[in-house]
Amino acid sequence: MILHTKTIGAGEPILFLHTGLQTGETDFLEQQAYFKESYQVVVPDLRGHGQSTSDELNNFLSDSVKDVHETLEALELPRVHVVGCSLGGMVALQFARAYPAQVKSVTLSGITAEKPHDWLALHEEDVAHQQQLLQDEKMVAYMNQLHRGTNWRIFLDLAQDPDWYPFNETEDISDLEPPVFFLVGEAQTGEVASASIYQKQLPHIHVGIVPFAGHNVHLEQTEMYTRLLEHFFNSLEE
Predict the structure, then answer these.
(1) 238 has pLDDT over 80
(2) Residue 134 domain flag
(3) Which of 56, 73, 99, 196 sits at 20 to 30 Å (Cα–Cα) from 139?
């Protein structure tokens, strides 16, 4: 499917892939505002999010990769920088694998290489937190408005399966061909450990560990993340 997509600015295209239950128009806002001055910023709603209406979510990751490919083809964008966090990072990783010729670089954050030893406990905490959100009427109303036409609760249902995380896809990224930038917040010990793992796997990877940040490093340390991303892009031109 061709995703609902907003484009702003002009120049080399940057594709931002949002986190779960966000949209292209609600995530990476500071980065969009900054990079639109020198780049073409491309922000789709992933399937089942925002205005990319779909209830076919059981094969979300593989289908989303195809969606991104079809969307870039429709926009006549043959090669892009891809930036993704968390759910968007998983899609970015798989897209770079499937269509390396379309990827000038890939920047990842919010993903983990290895299953933590306390994964089941962490998963139970996440599920409990999600169930609390469903009791918040204002939050539910906001989500209904944001993801109109799609049953966004399906994502929460899928996430109740403790085996939902694609560790088989994130554990080894040595097959990635484009230049890679892996940015993590220091508070996420699993992601920090992943940075070391990925450095050993790839000769063409850059790693940034950002202080005073966690899973959503682009939101928690916006300026630092943005400057590091800009430096990465500039380094590719040298």
Answers:
(1) no
(2) no
(3) 56
